[in-house]
Amino acid sequence: MKTKFFFAVIILLSITSASYSQKALPIQVNSLLAKIPELENCVASFKMCTIDSNSEGLVSVKDAGPVINGIQDRLAKNMTDLGNTSMNSSYTNASVPSQDQINQSMQNAMQMQSMSREQLMQMAKSKQNGNVPQPINGNLMKEFGQAQNAASQLSILQTELATKASQLDGEYKSKIQAIPTVIVNCKDFKVQGADVAVPKCDCVKALYLAYYQKRVAIEDEYLQKLNELLHNYLPKFKEQITIIDKVESDLNYGDAINIPTFKTQVVGVQQQALGSLIPLSGVVGNAIKDSGSEYTGIVNTNNNHLPVPCQ
Fold first, then answer.
1. Coil, strand or helix: which one is 50?
2. pLDDT class of 109 with cuts at 50, 70, 90
3. What range does the domain containing 251 cover?
4. How far is the C-alpha of 289 from the C-alpha of 143, rounded, in Å?
């Protein structure tokens, strides 16, 4: 009898909890994809970045700038909101039961002890059929299958792009590291009243400018190659995300159905679409920050901030 009682309680709980489920966000993921900026060259990257300057005027790059930061902040917020939808829905829709309601539920459960398992299951089914509308038609079910396939394709595209971008990054980092470091071989200039001879600043400046210009030229070439790679993959990302965006909209972001497990799948597909933009924005953001940092060498050298003392 105790087993049947607990079975009855479980059915009551399952019927009650069916109204609490996740919901996707009413957003178009492709609108975020469209905001990811083009990669141009080190000068353009430097202008996009957030720049710090110390008391002596020496500049450095703090981050990739407000455009990338805004995209990544939005992605992080959307992913957090998706993760919290189930909890928020429960807290929003649920109310604390009164003692009378608790007593009534226990009384109902006691009465259900005399029912057979088949009768209990039939009761649960009839209650759910009364509370849960028919979710979607066959065409939308087929469409959702396409969205799931699109999410799988996004995972493949993510891996491919990350691998190729990493290989390209390694190739050009090796080229930059191969540039000989600056050897100051300028004619010494004896400072009047000093015991130490130092090189002339014009000569030192020319050496360091040539060095940083070589680094920037290689970085510009890298940005061009990376931009070509992105232009090859971005339409593929857009194609799959468009499918997911349409299905999410057709399903009214989950409101068109009332089956918790299916709503969870709708949320999961949108999470995969948003998640695919996180490494993509990371690749672009890192490229902007690194290339902007390369250009600071030229800026600081032109402003006579040289690594060695000179006169």
1. strand
2. very low
3. 20-95+137-302
4. 40
